[in-house]
Write a structure and sequence with these properties.
Layout lengths: L2 E5 L39 H4 L12 H14 L6 E5 L10 H9 L5 E6 L9 H7 L2 E7 L5 H8 L4 H12 L3 E8 L6 H14 L3 E6 L24 H14 L3 E5 L16 H4 L10 E4 L4 H9 L7 E3 L10 H5 L9 E4 L7 H8 L7 E4 L8 H4 L4 H22 L3
Parallel strand pairs: 1-2, 2-3, 3-4, 4-5, 5-6, 6-7, 8-9, 8-10, 10-11
Helix pairs in contact: 4-6
Length: about 400
């Protein structure tokens, strides 16, 4: 059934009552276009990797323009709408005509989802009743901590008590998924336990935990590292162990990104499913696969079990879809096969990738891989185990087919 996404526009830090201390876009510079899968073959830079990835909107969009887009989208759809999602670069809670927008959407009589909000713009305690009466079915709400003081200090929420009150009311009337970037020494430990208890007692469906990033290797690609000078980070392993421990202690679903979903076993839940692994094609070609440091060991094990005879090469970047040309330049071309497959969503222009990975004089065949191989904790929160396994079967199967198609014998 068709779904509709309503893009309200908006700018991080400007249309959200100011940057949160930990925001990915804080201190972001106007870096040159990265290049990406959407770029034309002979030009580096397109609207996506030049503007959209930086969320460089001119501001919130006018309501009449949004209404026109909604009408145009509806005219192209067949069947009844299954959901409507509000999203944008700015925070929906800060949209100047938020109530008017919700009234407009409510007239379509489809479940309303708010893809993300910090709640910093929610100042009226009556707003929760307004939203529930107009069909709000699901919301992802960044709580950071159940402590008003911590929200005020680190999120710069001017009315944290009201925001938490609205969140509490929504927990009792729709599907609420809390979210929190975990900063060591700030909202972890006992504070995080209290936040989990607060959400569970009020009926939240789950909590998505995000590891705080403070270095280019952990994902800051906009020239803005460190976001918090001197602030320590959890290792990926420490973060995964924390998510596992919390998941055992609470009934609501708790997942983490980049690792992991303890309930489903993802990313790469297929590793525990020998029967499904046997359904993947056998690897017959030779090709190097480049991935992020988090995913590389998982991919290596899966491919090895299907007959792979080469190496999955980890870039310095932890997350594969945030790999840039700098990461490829740090690889030793001499360690690579004559065919190289790199992540489908990497921020790299295809031709530039070929030049960099052929810098040793070997003219390599460089191929962009599948866009998705698995689901991180943020994606899997709303999925079943079978849905994740189906995603992995398709993505990894496509990767193997690329290896066999382009790889050498």
């Amino acid at each position: 059934m068709p779904q509709l996404t309503v893009d309200i526009g908006g700018r991080p830090g400007l249309d959200c009552r100011g940057f949160c201390d930990y925001c990915y876009f804080r201190h972001a510079k106007d870096v040159p276009p990265f290049g990406c899968r959407h770029c034309p073959p002979f030009r580096k830079g397109c609207d996506y990797c030049s503007r959209s990835v930086k969320e460089r909107y001119s501001g919130f969009r006018d309501l009449p323009a949004i209404a026109d887009d909604i009408l145009a989208s509806l005219q192209m759809m067949e069947g009844d709408l299954s959901r409507i999602t509000i999203s944008g670069g700015g925070d929906p809670s800060c949209y100047p005509r938020f109530r008017d927008l919700v009234d407009l959407i409510a007239g379509m009589e489809a479940p309303l989802h708010i893809g993300y909000t910090s709640g910093k713009g929610f100042d009226d305690p009556d707003l929760s009743r307004f939203l529930l009466e107009r069909g709000l079915a699901e919301i992802s709400f960044t709580i950071f901590a159940s402590s008003p003081e911590l929200r005020r200090k680190h999120m710069h929420d001017p009315t944290p008590e009201v925001s938490l009150s609205i969140l509490e009311d929504l927990c009792g009337g729709c599907d609420v998924y809390g979210a929190a970037v975990v900063i060591p020494g700030v909202n972890d430990g006992e504070v995080l336990l209290e936040t989990c208890s607060w959400l569970e007692e009020r009926g939240a469906k789950g909590l998505i935990l995000m590891r705080f990033a403070n270095t280019p290797e952990s994902g800051l690609i906009l020239g803005n590292a460190p976001i918090l000078p001197g602030q320590t980070m959890q290792t990926v392993e420490e973060f995964r162990d924390m998510v596992t421990s919390l998941s055992r202690e609470f009934r609501m679903k708790i997942t983490g990104t980049p690792l992991w979903d303890p309930e489903i076993g993802s990313p790469f839940a297929i590793l525990s499913e020998d029967g499904l692994l046997d359904k993947l094609p056998r690897v017959t070609g030779r090709a190097s696969v480049v991935s992020g440091r988090v995913a590389a060991p998982f991919i290596q094990e899966i491919l090895d079990r299907r007959g792979y005879r080469c190496r999955v090469v980890p870039a310095d970047k932890e997350i594969a879809c945030l790999i840039t040309i700098d990461d490829l330049e740090r690889l030793n071309p001499g360690d690579l096969e004559g065919v190289v497959i790199f992540p489908g969503r990497a921020f790299v222009h295809d031709e530039e990738a070929r030049e960099v990975l052929s810098a040793d004089g070997c003219d390599r065949v460089v191929v962009r891989g599948p866009e998705t191989l698995t689901a991180d904790g943020e994606t899997s929160m709303g999925m079943t185990r079978n849905q994740v396994l189906e995603m992995e079967l398709e993505g990894i199967g496509n990767l193997i087919r690329l290896i066999n198609q382009y790889g050498t014998e």
